[in-house]
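subagent[fold] <- orchestrator: predict structure for attached chain, return tokens only, no commentary.
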Amino acid sequence: MFRTSLDSLLETTKDLAVEIIIVDNGGDISISRYIDGLLLDGAVQCVIHNANNLHFGFARNQGIAMAQGNYICIADNDIFYKKGWLESCWQILEKYPDLKIYATPICYPGGTNGRKTMRYNMGKLDDYDLDMRAGSNCFVIRKKDFAEIGLFKYHRVAGTKWTDEAVHKGYLAAVCPGELALHIALRAGYNHRATLPIKRTLRNGDEVYFNVDEYKI
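subagent[fold] -> orchestrator:
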């Protein structure tokens, strides 16, 4: 699934002026080596390796800290990206530079295995649906707007927590028409209800917990 997702992302952005940053949260040495090969070949611009899984919220913040552009794109590895998805997201942000919106090619989580989940539709902006929950695992946002909303929490549903904060600060997701990205796995192998410690062990043996708000030591 990772290779399918990443290959589709690289294919659909190869002619665009983008900076691709991959954060590897460990767990599969073959994937780590594959990513390093892409870096050496120049297909991606930056790779961050974590020895242990520090959670996707932590990983997203690591990548964002390295990003140099005026736009930030979160692109998770459980999506198949179709031609034109990124350009369509850019277009809506360029067209409405003063609106509190971010753009997404996917209405999260959409339909999976014939099952539909609730959407939070808030009307339309031209051809774009405005939604309170869309795009949790893939969206494009102006860097200044992301700074206003804030970083991701280290939480088992970090994406949901971030969209909660976005809505609280007046932002909505503008969903590009045409189903330009497919959600090819719904939390495959990931139990979002399990509360797990997100921690690092220091050299002196002390353990530092990042999600103390939900994990009670």
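orchestrator: received. Logging for downstream: The chain has a mean pLDDT of 85. The chain has one domain: 2-185+197-209.
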